[in-house]
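[INFO] parsing input record for CCHC-type domain-containing protein
[DEBUG] input buffer:
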Amino acid sequence: MMLRYRIGCGSIKLCIESTAGPSLWVKPSAINTTFGSLSHKDDFFFVNKNRKLILVTNRISSTEKVVEYVHSTPNAIVRLIDSNIVTKYIVRDVETDFLLEDIAKEIASQDILVSKIVGFKKKGTSEPIPIILIDEIGKTNRSEIKIGRVIFRVSRFIENPKVCFKCLKFGHTQIRCNKDKRCSKCGGTHNDECTGPIKCFRCNEPHDALDKNCTIFIREQEIINLVQTHDILFAEARKRVATGQSFAAVAGSTSTSKSVVSSEVQAQLSDLLLVIKSLQDQITNLAPQVSQISNLREVNKKILDRCIQTQEHLDHQIVENKNLQALMNSQNKIIESLTNRLTVLESNYGFRSSDSPDPGLYHQSLDELNNFSPAIPVDTGPGIG
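[DEBUG] output buffer:
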């Protein structure tokens, strides 16, 4: 079982005994061997005058382990005898056919650590009523609990102050009281029938000391309400009540702070709504620009496609230019080779190249050229006539 536990809330006191009465573990060696690995180093054990083993711890984990081990041991019994971190719940409309043992098993299967389950009967009869009281170890805040297949609503149980019917003081019972018996009517310590006037020894008012309308009784009830409702220690609760911070005042201040917080939250929500509306208006105004941006994206996409095509064409032209350059280099090499061969041929056959005549050295007219007769007769061979 895993339960949340806030350190500093108090301690748990378990009584480990047997069906015969005394505990099965009373020797220190047996206690260390059996419970050493189940408890924390801050926990401590002691054996009381009735030879019952008492565990005092402030850890839920130690409680769970010890309870589980003792329950698994034959003839061993463990019970909670004191705790100030128990939350009590009243469950109504529970069928009286349910056995308390079955209810305990059902609750344990939900990882809820319960120290006690109490059923109620009609006053003066043995007829059960459909109400049970559940003591859950730990400071919890449940609103419902499952029993069988039914989910029941639960309510916190604020118990009345613990009163000793022997000395009539608060905080303990008559079983543990070692003081003299006190009369509830006059406050005296006589054993015979009271003949004096009725007077509360606590508040000096004319009423019985066990009257629940006593201002001291109401004050003790407020202390218990503060302890159980606001999760504080008894000393702190008594201090608050003594300084006038009653349960009603604390609850009122809590509700006032809640209302202040609620008003602050509402103001923040109003501001957030205004901001959201402003953002919506901005989005509405940006809608046409978003449309233009979409159109520009389309245009940019087309331009980009055109640029890609142009780049591909340029790359193709560059390749063709390289091929043409290679072809020109090849042609130049061929021309150079032919020129070299021609030079070799001229040198081999005695050819001499002559300079081209300068047109400026000759000034003959066309008639002079026509009248020019060669100095050397030309043999034309046999001709006609």
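[INFO] The helical segments are 28-35, 60-71, 100-108, 215-230, 234-242, 247-349, 366-371.
[INFO] shutting down worker
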